Fold this protein.
Amino acid sequence: MKLSIIPSPYETEYLTGFTKATAPVTEYDAENLPADGFELHIDGSIRIGASSLSGFFYGRQALSQIMFQCGQNIPNVHIRDIPRYTYRAFMIDSARHFTSIADIKKMIDYCAKLRFNVFHWHLTDDQGWRPEIKAFPVLTQKGAYRKGSHFGAEQNEDVYGGFYTQDEMRDIVSYAHANHMIVVPEIDMPGHVSALLSSVEGMACNGKKVEAKTTAGIFRDIICAGNDDNYDILYEILDEICDIFPDSYIHIGGDEAPKAQWKDCPVCRQRIEDEKLRNEDELQGYFINRINKYLKGKGKKVITWNESLKGGNLDEDITVQRWMDPKELSKASPNAIINSDFYRYYADYPYAMTPLKKVYEYEPQVNSNVVGVDTPIWTEYVADLEKTEYMCFPRFIAVAQTAWCKNKPAYSRFRQELTEMLPWYGFTSIADESEWDPSGVTRLPRVVKHFGSISKNKRIREFFLKK
Ligand SMILES: [Zn+2]
């Protein structure tokens, strides 16, 4: 028999004979293995070797998968497994819709089984500010709430919101660590900040008053990059974020920040002149670099979305998260890259646009700087755990397979293994198998059903036209 293990092992050697599943499991140090790697020997006895706690954790999970499918007698086998990427992430957007602590833990449970080792937590956006910041209580008194929700079929004027206390966020960090994951908090800036601007007045250009948004979209209200006071406010916020989240990375956003207000703002224009910048894209580079310098001083590494490359002046030590394909990426940019391909890895788009096969067969190594992958679930149209599970699984499993496995099997084999192993993961509301790869004629009505309407959505049209 051929064992089904997902993510698939790097090397599997089948031996003759069987071993009782009740045999004791022993562990040994295997210093030659990289972090997360493991060896699993089943040959009369059961032994797991690793050089890291995560390696033992993943080895035990592989054994659990084997026991799940084999019952009392396990075929003898030697497995040697090492990860393809060291950065294997999933992202939850807790700003558009609030994710309860219990639901986040549930997602961490699932994703640990997929050997994801990074939980990227999108904590702030136009529609809500979620982390408690003690220096600015107004952020959670005001910025955590919006006056209505207008996303597809969800249309109401009810006050919506919620926030995480610092203790709750620390609890998530501990929980993730116990599952061999780091937590990368994202505080989005200079755009996607309406909730921040609604709370801390004076941060927008020209003293503009801003409200937290109740619709999806890209908004012109961004942080004034010329105002020095704004940097001090952001440093104070980030001080607390760094204190809550002890792992190496902080994500500072940088996506979808329209520059119209910077163009019209005398303070921003003065900054461009003083710093000898050529344009507003370079001003974003300046802004991100300045925050990077501050966070580096605190021992952190910074991640930004790929728009920050546009000015051409981004610090080389900043990690870039690619979601679109700007021309700047095709140049010899030295920045490390995390790949979150919009057309394959954005799990908030319906299966009719991003079928499982397309996710599985994607090759993320777009250039030699790719250090890992991140699959996001944005939540404008995803309001609860049930929908989150439906959108993420099994597509997250396909991403996990690519993130872990250097020599993944053909899609048809993956589908067979997936069918066999699905009950092992313990999902409660996964998408039905009939929906994973919908056929041509059913795709468009499914997309319309998901978004309510697609007439105004340029990105959805691009999906069908371009890819
Ligand atoms: Zn300004």
About this structure: The chain is about 35% helix and 20% strand.
